[in-house]
Amino acid sequence: xxxxxxxxLALLGGLILCVSLPANALTLEQALRLAQQNAPELETSxxxxxxxxxxxxxxxxxxxxxxxxxLENLPIEGDQRGSLSNSDMTMxxxxxxxxxxxxxxxxxxxxxxxxxxxxxDAERSLVQLAVRSAAASGWLRLxxxxxxxxxxxxxxxxxxxxxxxxxARLAAxxxxxxxxxxxxxxxxxLDERREALTARLEQARAELRRWTGPLDGQQGTSGGWPVxxxxxxxxxxxxxxxxxxxxxxxxxxxxxxxLALAEADRRPxxxxxxxxxxxxxxxxxxxxxxxSVGLPVFPGQRQNxxxxxxxxxxxxxxxxxxxxRRRLVxxxxxxxxxxxxxxxxxxxxxxxxxxxxxxRSELSLADYRAGRGNLDEVIGARQAHTExxxxxxxxxxxxxxxxxxxxxxxxxx
Length: 413
Prior knowledge:
Blueprint: H1 9-17, H2 28-38, H3 40-57, E1 66-72, E2 91-100, H4 103-171, H5 182-212, H6 243-246, H7 248-264, E3 270-278, E4 286-293, H8 303-369, H9 375-411
Antiparallel strand pairs: 1-2, 2-3, 3-4
Helix pairs in contact: 1-4, 2-4, 3-4, 4-5, 4-7, 4-9, 7-8, 8-9
């Protein structure tokens, strides 16, 4: 796991970016598009929208009329019991009736249906955000694992160089015999590390397929780390359209509809009925018309407490909205600090730490070849150089994940 003295650092970066990928490798944008097309959660939310839309078509209308049948004044005692024709008062009745809720109640019902449709639309946006974020996370994890595996392949080349160097020194009688198995030992550690990385890669690929659906072959990633031009502070202007906040508008409409429904309870509902009454042969048939009206005569004990409760619900929602807004602002401010920290760490890693570690590794190998150093120093320097490369990949992955989450959460709406 060692570098040649003359091998430039840029070659390692080129190897990482140009590692052989499957022919059907996915870009991040393709993965997001597949997730949006195939995720079952989005299909579920689409059906929820359809259900709310269908529910809206029947809101605010009068309830169905009632058709009733019956007998009136049927004798149950005496000589005429059970007879339909011997009593002057016995009638066969067919009646039609209609409940008529007051206009405020029907208007509130329409408001509530509109609000539920708006909530279904807003909740679909939340589901879409969750699906796209999860798919992006899977793609980024897969891309990170591929980067680290590419780095590992380069380390195998250095391990072969180490083996040749140790053998040459032993053949010249200038090195301890105990150095002979060191290359094989480091090779076994590389194999162990590659197995762990391969497992991580397959786990990331499985996570990605969870959202995109089945993928052909051993799907890999295409392209570098995603780059979004906006800074965290730029997203503040788009805060109100963020799905977590946007859902509060229809939720508020639903609370307003509940309040309007409670207030409608203070106004009377009414109903009418029309009945045809058929009497025995030789007797005149009859007709009845009836109108009934509700009497909300005790509002202080019934309607007013419900109205007060709905007002409290509205105030609670306003407080929840403000709490959510403050949380999102805090997340943006925290993200801005994290972005600055990660960008600074990557610059330091690229311009200072990695070049110094590379120089140390190359010099320690040169000293070993010249007989001035020991193998432990060579291996230690090489391991430190490798760990810095892996750390840089992890930093780049963390920054890409943070920027992607910011863009998907705040920048697409």
